[in-house]
Amino acid sequence: MSKLLFEKNVPGSNAFSLPPCDVPEQDIAIPAKFLRQTEMALPELSEVEVVRHYMALSHQAYGVDDGLYPLGSCTMKYNPKINEWAVRLPGWSCLHPLQAPETVQGALELMYETERMLCEIGGMDAFTLQPAAGAHGEMTGVMIIKAYHQHRKDERRKKILVPDSAHGTNPATAHVMGYQVVEVKSNHRGLVDLDDLQAKMNDEVAGLMLTNPNTLGLFEEDIEDIARIVHEDGGLLYYDGANLNAIMGVARPGDMGFDVVHYNLHKTFSTPHGGGGPGSGPVGVKSFLSDFLPQPVLIKEKDGYRLDEDRPLAIGKIHSFYGNFAVVVKAYAYIKALGSAGIREACQYAVLNANYLRCKLKDYYEIPYDRLCKHEFVATGRWQMEDNGVSTLDIAKRLIDFGYHPPTVYFPLIIKEAMMLEPTETESKQRLDDFIAVMQEIAREAREEPRQVLEAPHNTPVLRVDEVQAARNPVVRYDKS
What we know:
Blueprint: H1 47-60, H2 81-87, H3 90-93, H4 105-122, E1 126-128, H5 134-151, E2 159-163, H6 169-176, E3 180-184, H7 194-200, E4 205-210, H8 223-232, E5 236-241, H9 253-256, E6 260-263, H10 265-268, E7 283-285, E8 297-301, E9 304-308, H11 325-361, E10 377-380, H12 382-388, H13 392-401, E11 408-409, E12 418-421, H14 429-448, H15 450-454, H16 467-472
Parallel strand pairs: 2-3, 2-4, 4-5, 5-6
Antiparallel strand pairs: 1-7, 6-7, 8-9, 10-12, 11-12
Helix pairs in contact: 2-11, 4-11, 5-6, 11-14
């Protein structure tokens, strides 16, 4: 395990000089209670040793530029470097959010055009770019649903329906917004059980939050019936856009009957998410909900663009200024570069790659729903667990030894020993074949040399971590004593 900077301390080695102060000095007495009583225990290191320390740490990290990132329901794709170049152009990077609208017409035009492209991709009528992440977009969408019902004086609606296979943010969002969460069961095919939905849908339900395809990677074939059941009782249908990669350019949520959608620009439109962001979770609505979008709203006029703050039915402002602009620039560049044909092709490759992986692994791992999937599928380590006590977690840890990031494990919760795999559209057949060979080798080890898998990883700076202890009692501060 690498030493901390504090542990590399060499007294007297941090020779440095500060530039002259370029602001007037102020003779202000700082109250004693705010002053330190002892010297700061900072490490003393030369510049080269500090650089080497952080370079060593970077080599221990893993990102999309290092290799395959098969996290299901996360869409960690390669980030086109042209988008990074575009967002660093001075006209974008030097903007200040408090500039007058007439001085940032180019930025407003880019945002407006992005909104219109997102409307076209999703079959929606209006969009806001304000939400800063997928979960933030979910909250915004549910706020719009709530505002719609309240505006109609329909105060009975205190429940939100959520499938048992949903992303964890769905029930969390509904709960935060004050709704009672009602779970809808999956049927034997891994899809929404229409009978259960019909039994739970009534005039107390504000709406249904749904991902299509769902977290099993399966397309909800009964989506039109689902929409009908929800709408007939006055509810609204919300689309969790986490899995949009699987349908973009081929099918549109708005055409399926969804009233509100959120996208993840940082998952679907080229900015890999994770590590704290930044993200972007734009929300789109059908026209009858457009008045409830958060303010301000971008308006195109004859002489340019403006931000409209006069929105009496708006849910308010849900982000400072107008969202994470840099992520929007990357999404704009990505969509423009691909065009409508490219968006469709990216979707098709995402589906092709997932099905190729599924077919190559189904003789080695259980596939609970072994049929045509979309962009991801769920395998399990059940066979390995029953034969030699090798769990899905063990398999994930062993993957690290082969230089691969593990897939999502133990989700969705309705599948025991689940491994959710999503290769994304950006991986080549050669890379997928390498990954398949490693997964097959781990299956062989689990059968013939189980300790090799049970004790993995073998070559990382830190081996098996007590994850429960780390979560409950994290050590986040260096104790010099």
